[in-house]
Amino acid sequence: MKIQIINGPNLNLLGVREKSIYGDASFETYLETLRQRFANITIDYYQSNIEGEIINKLHEIGFSYDGIVMNAGAYTHTSIAIADAIAAINTPVIEVHISNVHKREEFRHKSMIAANCRGVIAGFGMDSYRLALENLTLK
User: What superkingdom heads the lineage (predicted)?
Assistant: First the structure.
C-alpha cells in the first residue's frame, strides 16, 4: 500500500511559525513517527508553496497510489483548480488540517476541496494525519 501526504503553502514552516496554532514540531519529525507507526505501508511526502506544483503531483500519483492525505493550507479556501484536480483522479483524498479551522477566521470555514474528498479531519494537531492514514488503511 502506498499513501502520499501532500502539504501546501507555509507548512514547510511547521515547528517555526505560529507555534500556538501549529505546535513546535517540524513535519519531518512527525513524518518519522508516522512511518514507524505504519511500517507496513509506504508513506511518501511532498510539500509545495505553489498551487500548480500541487496539481501536478495530484495528476502524477492520482491513478497509482492507494490514498492521499492532503493539507492544502490556505489553498483549501481558494483553489477551485486543486478541487478539480482531486475530482479528476481515482485515488481517494482525505483533507486534513492541524488546527480547527472552524474556530478561526470566517474565511477558513469554507473549503473549496472538501466536496471532492472522502472526508475532512481538522483540529487534532499533527494527529489529524494519523487519523487520515488510519482511515485510508482500513479495508
Answer: Bacteria
pTM of the model: 0.91
At 77-130, the pLDDT tens digits run: 999 999 999 999 999 999 999 987 776 667 777 899 999 999 999 999 999 999
In the block, cell 511526502 appears at 45
108 is in an annotated binding site: yes
Active site residues: 22, 97
Domain ranges of the chain: 2-137
Q: Is 84 one of the annotated binding-site residues?
A: yes
Is 59 annotated as a binding-site member? no
Q: Topology of domain 2-137, per CATH? A: Rossmann fold (3.40.50)
